[in-house]
Specification:
Blueprint lengths: L18 E5 L6 H15 L2 E6 L6 H13 L3 E4 L10 H4 L4 H21 L1
Parallel strand pairs: 1-2, 2-3
Helix pairs in contact: 1-4
Length: 118
């Protein structure tokens, strides 16, 4: 709506001052996709915080990613490691990692665009 109000609940959209986005990525394409494409889009959409969700076996890579998120101008938060029964293989195993990561990337871009529209 042109008056800045959200038609679903009448809340003034301009009240949202900070947005936080949490994600975990396949580390193989972090540099080419996240740093170059996703971070600039998120900043342009008003997202100010990045939450890194590392599985335990990727904590050192996640620390490097957090540093890059800070360098890109975001406040960075670490989420607790995945629970033991989290299906990490859905993202990192059985040859599905690239396709799963690309799907997550597309979903995040959709979310960023939705935030920008709001």
């Amino acid at each position: 709506m042109l008056d800045g109000r959200d038609g679903r609940n009448g809340r003034d959209r301009r009240e949202v001052k900070e947005l936080r986005l949490g994600f975990s990525f396949n580390h193989e394409w972090w540099d080419e996709c996240v740093l170059v494409e996703l971070f600039p889009t998120l900043r342009a959409c008003g997202i100010t915080d990045i939450e890194i969700n590392p599985p335990p076996e990727h904590m050192s890579e996640a620390a490097a990613q957090a540093y890059q998120a800070l360098e890109a101008g975001f406040r960075c938060h670490f989420h607790a490691p995945y629970p033991e029964d989290f299906p990490i293989c859905d993202y990192h195993g059985a040859g599905k990692a690239r396709a799963a990561s690309e799907e997550i990337f597309r979903n995040l871009l959709d979310l960023a665009l939705e935030c920008a529209v709001r």
